[in-house]
Amino acid sequence: MKKIQNTALLVCTISLLGATVGAGSVTAADQRSGVQNRLAHENSPYLLLHAHNPVDWYPWGPEALEKARAEDKPIFLSVGYSSCYWCHVMERKVFSNKEIAKFLNEKFICIKVDREERPDVDDIYMTSLLVYQQLSGGRGRGGWPLSLFLTPAGNPIAGATYLPPEDLPGGRRGFLTIARRIFSAWSERRGDVERSSQLISKEVRRLSVPAAAQASDIDSSVVQTAVSAVESLYDSEWGGVDLTEGNQQGPRFPNIPRLLLLMSVIEESKSPANTVAKPLDQLQKMVHHSFTRMAQGGIRDHLAGGFHRYSTDRRWRVPHFEKMLYDQAQLLEGYTIASQLTGEPLFEEVAVEIADFVRKEFTTPQGAFCSALDAETNAIEGEYYVWHESEIDQLLSSDDAKLFKSAYGVGNSNPFEHGHILHLPKTVAELSRNQNTPVSQFLSRLAASRQTLLDARNKRERPFLDDKVLTAWNAMMIRALAISGLHLNRATDIAAAKRAARFLLKNLRNEDGDLLRSWRSGEATHAAYLDDYAFLVSALIALHDATGDDEWMQLAQELNERQLSRFYDDEQHVFYFTAHDHEQLIARTSSPFDSVFPSGNSVAIRNLIRLSGQSDDLSETARQTLLRFLPVIQKSPASSSGLALAVHEWLVASEKYSSSTSTTLDGKRSSGSTPDQESQSSPESPAADEETAIKTRTVFRPVLTPDPVQKNNAKKRVTAHVFPRYNKLPRGKKCPVAIELRVQEGWHINANRPHSNFLIPTEINLKTKPKVNVRMTRIAYPKHKLHTIQQESEPYHVYDGKVMIYCLLETDAQESTNVAKLEFHIRYQACNDDQCEKPVTMVMKGVLPLADPHDDIEKLYPEKFKKAVREKSPAPKATNQRRDSDEQS
After folding, report:
1. Is 0.85 surpassed by the pTM of this model?
2. Which residues pair with 824 in a beta bridge?
3. 3-state helix/strand/coil string of 371-418
4. pLDDT in tens, 604-630
5. Beta bridge partners of 324
6. Would strands 574-575 and 830-831 be described as parallel, antiparallel, or unpaired?
């Protein structure tokens, strides 16, 4: 560590600069030239803000990185976002400065990144900044704008957050001084600089994935630990759950993931799976007090609704004024659930305000949601939101002005330099008592006054609206609106959620069906990240709950499968933030920790738990991932509240499922399972794991994926077994497979080629894990039966009783994988003479080892192939061959 520190200090030491430096009154227009740089061709509002800088900016991409390597120049990387106040200050004061721009253009390749479009780049280099600060003796604080100097290979040299253009009194160095020192060190001590940068990158890679530890069991202790950790951060005076020894006066963030954990524990307190042995009245007090204080504070916009990003002080009074979509989403969900949990009318009022604000001010004409509102107008933070007493006196009558100023703390000590911030020093009940006025009359007068002030405020110059549409943030709002619509009986919220969901599914997908991250002005760009997939799956599940429409659950299942194939690591048991085919950066991250919203891993696991009612495989993936992260929760419980909530939901779901199904979520047989339930599995007992299955004979386990309400009926209607002819799949050869369906007496399923195109055919498809080239060919369906129903003119083509379907499995001789994970997807619709149930997909999952030429191969299930198999054909020539007989899934 000492060697690293000395090397880093040799390069330079840069102090972290926070929001204590005045912004001044210089505007961007004062310094901009009429020349456009490359950012003029970008779509991001933040990048476009810098399009007229004299700095020769590149967007992040191959062109800039290749140029840095080709010219052997270091990189200056600047990361920010459109509603970031200090990003605007740096744009005006530093990047519009011609002297600074000239030096940067000559000595560096300059790259500008919108952190909201490229959170992967932001995350890796923010971690790099923190590592650099630790090694160089800095205070270890991050923030935006992020300013980093990199080697041509992208390894971090040194960095800071906001940097002033010139040196300041007290020894604080300006941007140009630091840039010159960096370039001097690069030119004169390059070996030291590169060694230092490589060590920083190595540490970043180490921190990017949790340590390879795994718990042996999932129990309630981890939830108790997390709840105790959140409880220790509770501010008993001003509410909130982020009060630490070093954060006694602020800033304060809502930290909704922590409050959602507490509310979930309270809500399930009567469940047999109650996971926390804690006095619930204390947890209820924490929740009620925190949501009340935030609602009273200046962090809430008392005129238009919605919340500012965070409070700069402990009392929630002076906010950082930008408004972010993800905050509105989380607070809408939080206040909705809190209103149901406590019955507090204020919480429902706040939730309704947020939903109405988002629909009015954050919604695009197409129905999607914008990203953020700026904090500043005319280079003054909060100017749009604050008030002077004289303004209120002019707008309201004398009596109303007096009442309004008393209610909203105007005239008391004012901690903000630009005007009064509306807040509620006392509750409405206390204020009405002090005024000796009935509450209803008091509220009516305040509502009229608020509307008058809002009308006046709407005439002011409005803050800049970042109208780009981000998939993850939109998904969070869709989920929140579905929840508020369901619990607060607001059809408008559900309608808005549905419209936004359809927009995302139509406009933010590429030709292959993969999600994209960002949309603006008709153009969708950037590959999606884990958060985009996980939050959208969660939103679609919430829409299903709110509407009862099976379409949303089906879409959630399909998207979840795509997420698993693109982001999940079966060996590490983690979801990575970037997809397997994503651009390679200096590290690939998988974070278990919440940021301003829950971690993507925690949301993905919660989705798996919810969807695991239709799939044992999803259940096992959720279990393995939770086991992987349990040590992280034990070590940093408050920072991983989202994961603790996932554990809590796992335990609750395990209890619920174990009382109604034959297999609990942890894979153990329930003592309550019935013989009928047990009979739905394969002829032999399911193998405990894949290795056991390989050593004995392959067993394909059934997994149903209908709507949960249908699941029990679907199990009764049709059972399925898969019988491979051989115990191994010969490389470069064929393995016959028999698929047996048994249809419940009195019921039938449609034939593969039904008599009408309007009927759902019985079909079988094969899916395999990525990189395993196994094909299903020559599918042979049996001859249909004719089934006549009274008052129907034409007979139906159906299967009933025992149904045998045959196919071949083929693979390439060069296939290197040793084990093929196979999924036979059997889709059918069960009917009787009176009704047809909804279509069902049964997934039969199993594994087959691949055989080398010298391996012994055993024949299996001879009774299934006596009449059907000739060694070179999967079945006798069937009279009704499948329409696409050689289709490969």
Report:
1. no
2. 766, 844
3. CEECCEECCEECCCCCECHHHHHHHCCHHHHHHHHHHCCCCCCCCCCC
4. 999 999 998 756 789 999 999 999 999
5. 372
6. unpaired
